[in-house]
Amino acid sequence: MFTRLREDIAAIRQKDPAARSNWEVFTCYPGLHAVMLHRVAHRCWTSGFKWSGRYISQYARFLTGIEIHPGATLGRRVFIDHGMGVVIGETAVIGDDCTIYQGVTLGGTSLTRGAKRHPTLEAGVIVGAGAKVLGGFTVGEGAKIGSNAVVVKPVPAGGTAVGNPARIVRPGAPREGTKVGEGECKPEFSAYGITPNADDPVSLAIHGLIENATDQSHKIDVMVAALNQLGAHLEALGASKTDTAELRKLGKEIQDM
């Protein structure tokens, strides 16, 4: 028990620069309190004391604003940051070293009793604030889910999902980190699931189409000017000249969205 508590506190201090001491984390972090109480509730639940487990989970919800069903399974060093409004369903499974921010829902879409209705987060998954992960599928190891994403399909290991419905903006890949001597290099932590240079593929496609249209318009203007010099005056075509600067500006605005 105390070993796991020390692990939890160390993980929080590693991931949260606002944590200044072990005592501050132990006394002031609702995510830690919710995880500690869940372990008691889960033990009651698995031992057959269902009502006691639910009562402890409701007390933890009142105390922390974090609702974890006593049937859910949490791994080691799970960090629920801020935590207000987090809801974790009965058949959810959260692996080691996962990070969950405020407003996250790990919910179920099936009404079948006894079925796997809630998602499984493999080790090292980061779920950004306000994200909803709905269904009995798996989010692969080291995956990141952006803030306010609505995920209804599996996410590959190492992938990054954003949007509503969520799209994979960075394809799945093995977790970063290679063996160095006797130790292992851990992947860099990404707060709120933000991945640098992971642009939305839809905005990139639209931006590419606008760039192509701009280039085509420029080529047509050059051709019209050349024909005019040769004596073929095409005033009607010249009058409909496209504002290429405006098109490029629009493409940049879409890419920045």
From TrEMBL:
Pfam families: Hexapep
A GO molecular function held by the record: serine O-acetyltransferase activity
Subcellular location: Cytoplasm
Annotated keywords: Acyltransferase, Amino-acid biosynthesis, Cysteine biosynthesis, Cytoplasm, Repeat, Transferase
Record-listed E.C. numbers: 2.3.1.30
EC class name: transferase
GO BP term, pick one: cysteine biosynthetic process from serine
Gene3D superfamilies listed in its UniProt record: Hexapeptide repeat proteins, serine acetyltransferase, domain 1
Family: Belongs to the transferase hexapeptide repeat family.
Protein name from the UniProt record: Serine acetyltransferase
